[in-house]
């Protein structure tokens, strides 16, 4: 599978007053054709700056990036013909109706009248916008404007789709529909690069991902790769044959990273080896027989907290050592 997005040592520096701010500090990665690739990180990590460069909205200070073989700086028009994007700014024509927004978008991208109408109706059905066809976009809420923006890019068949926090302001049902639509786009061979702070969304969608912090990539790979970086952290779910309330104290004595109780089931996030924790659970079950025991790999949220918490501690320690 060939790489359709290539990013090499990408840097972007801007000035805040007289102070230079390094929004990107040498980011490198590649995205294969047809995969869903995630950019994750806290606010200020550099995700949106990176997407704005890849979509030719912003020029990098240095480095190289290309889409489908076209350099984003030297051939921006060629890049734009290969992409569709939902950026953080809502790109809708507020004085036009929902239907006119969709159809104008299709016409501007060279679709025939019949094909534009067919795709507009399909995209509106997915995002539940059909009842709003004759309403001006300026009267829509922020969430519905976001729906309209996503509907517009679903009308196109460009090889690359950028989604920057695309589900912001959407209710859970519509988010689920958007996730299904993204999967469908990828299944048809479209490459999707998304940024999100919804880690369950990234875990459900992404084939691979990059975790960013302070303008740099701190980890990358599949979910399995990231789990390998998370210091052997995993989750244990268990329940007891009888009331396990008295066992909770014994579970806390094992010093898990977290302990949660939900309707008689206990969920522990722990560090160590599986063999070690099997021995711990065996000792607990000698006093309080277990009815269910399950070991699972860490969720993306747990990995995220582990990697970023560990990095923050390292940063603080380095700062203290430099004093």
Largest sheet entry: 6 strands, mixed
In whole angstroms, the N-to-C terminal distance is: 49 Å
CATH superfamily of the largest domain: P-loop containing nucleotide triphosphate hydrolases
As for the CATH topology of the largest domain, it is: Rossmann fold
- Number of domains as seen in the coordinates: 3
Determine the mean pLDDT: 86
Shape: globular
Structure description:
There is one protein chain. The protein is of the alpha/beta class and 323 residues long. It folds into 3 domains: 1-82 and 158-170 and 184-225, P-loop containing nucleotide triphosphate hydrolases (Rossmann fold, 3-Layer(aba) Sandwich), CATH 3.40.50.300; 93-157, no CATH class; 231-297, YebC, transcriptional regulation domain (Alpha-Beta Plaits). Helix content is 38%, strand content 29%. It has 11 helices and 14 strands. The protein has helices at residues 47-54, 76-80, 98-108, 113-126, 142-154, 172-187, 199-205, 223-229, 247-253, 274-287, 300-321, and strands spanning 3-16, 19-32, 36-40, 62-67, 70-71, 83-86, 160-164, 191-195, 208-213, 216-221, 233-240, 258-262, 265-271, 290-297. The strands form 3 sheets. A 6-stranded mixed β-sheet has the order 6-7-8-3-9-10, with helices on both faces. A 4-stranded antiparallel β-sheet has the order 2-1-4-5. Helix 3 crosses helix 4 (113-126) and helix 4 (113-126) packs across helix 5. The longest helix is centred in the last third of the chain and has 22 residues, at 300-321. The radius of gyration is 24 Å and the shape is globular. The protein starts with a strand and ends with a helix. Mean pLDDT is 86; it is low at 312-323.
């Amino acid at each position: 599978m060939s790489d359709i997005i290539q990013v090499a040592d990408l840097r972007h520096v801007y000035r805040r007053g007289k102070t230079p701010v390094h929004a990107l500090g040498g980011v490198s990665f590649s995205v294969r054709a047809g995969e869903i690739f995630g950019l994750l990180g806290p606010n200020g990590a550099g995700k949106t700056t990176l997407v704005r460069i890849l979509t030719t909205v912003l020029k990098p200070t240095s480095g190289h990036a290309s889409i489908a073989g076209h350099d984003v700086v030297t051939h921006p028009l060629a890049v734009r013909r290969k992409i569709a994007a939902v950026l953080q700014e809502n790109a809708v024509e507020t004085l036009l109706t929902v239907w006119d927004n969709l159809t104008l978008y299709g016409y501007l991208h060279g679709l025939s009248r019949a094909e534009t109408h067919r795709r507009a109706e399909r995209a509106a059905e997915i995002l539940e916008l059909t009842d709003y066809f004759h309403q001006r976009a300026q009267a829509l809420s922020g969430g519905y404007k976001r729906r309209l923006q996503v509907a517009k890019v679903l009308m196109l068949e460009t090889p690359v789709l950028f989604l920057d926090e695309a589900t912001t302001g959407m209710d859970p049902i519509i988010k689920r529909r958007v996730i299904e639509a993204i999967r469908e786009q990828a299944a048809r061979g479209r490459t999707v690069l998304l940024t999100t702070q919804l880690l369950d969304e990234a875990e459900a969608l992404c084939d691979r991902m990059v975790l960013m912090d302070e303008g740099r990539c701190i980890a990358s790979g599949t979910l399995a790769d990231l789990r390998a970086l998370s210091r052997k952290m995993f989750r244990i779910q268990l329940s007891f044959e009888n009331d396990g309330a008295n066992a909770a104290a014994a579970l806390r004595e094992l010093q898990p990273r977290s302990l949660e109780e939900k309707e008689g089931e206990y969920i522990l996030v722990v560090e160590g080896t599986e063999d070690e924790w099997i021995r711990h659970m065996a000792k607990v079950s000698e006093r309080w027989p277990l009815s269910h025991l399950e070991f699972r790999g860490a969720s993306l949220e747990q990995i995220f907290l582990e990697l970023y918490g560990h990095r923050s501690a390292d940063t603080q320690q380095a700062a203290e050592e430099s004093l």
